[in-house]
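Q: How do we represent a protein-ligand complex in a form that can be generated token by token?
A: Start from the inputs.
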Amino acid sequence: MNFITVESYDKLSKRAASLIAAQVLMKPNCVLGLATGSSPIGIYKKLIEWNRAGDLDFSKTVSVNLDEYIGLDGTNDQSYRYFMQTQLFDHVNILPENTYVPNGCAADLAKECEEYDARIERLGGIDLQLLGIGLDGHIGFNEPGDAFISPTHVIDLHESTIQANARFFASEAEVPRQAVTMGIGAIMKAKKVLLIANGKAKKEIVQKAFFGPITPAVPASILQLHPDLTVVFSEE
Ligand code: GLP
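Then emit the structure tokens for the protein with GLP bound:
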């Protein structure tokens, strides 16, 4: 594991964005696994800046996102599809047909999950997976539990996650109670994993996840077994 501590959110964003840019430069037709939440916003700003300056080309790049709330479609400003459009996709030259986010409004969610994994396989797997980390150690929406769940699946969000994510909604009652999330399987199969964690509040869970026992009670801890993991942490 390559554990990098930096002193500010700006440095975290620059460092992580550089690693993503390096991936795209080395393999323009790579598959990027992308994440939502507040932490990656600075990274996406940098990628937009470099794309606009002509230094980074996404025209051959494919993206697969980690997760989506159930019941929110892409027009809903709280959906993760909407987040990705407004924070990144609408501002860079990635082709719309090359961006995948699970469909949380699919009539048959079991089929949607199966197809999501099959698509990742067809694309040749993920070259670089970007991850944030929840306060309870979740990655994507893989919540703490009794076992690591490998395939893309539907998950009941834990109360602490609902509370943590309520800051993005008008009220806690509006936070969807379920989500579709890529499972631990596709994440662990990614050739590279880049996890970012920002702020004092994340320090304890980062400690547990990367320097504590590997347990499904802390889903991110499984990443200790990944052969190419970089963690960028800022306490700011
Ligand atoms: C959500 C997302 C995760 C993200 C987490 C942390 O629950 N599903 O992918 O890592 O939030 O978000 P933040 O970066 O805002 O702390």
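The chain is about 30% helix and 20% strand. Residues 35-39, 66-67, 132-134, 140-141, 161, 165 surround GLP (CB under 6 Å).
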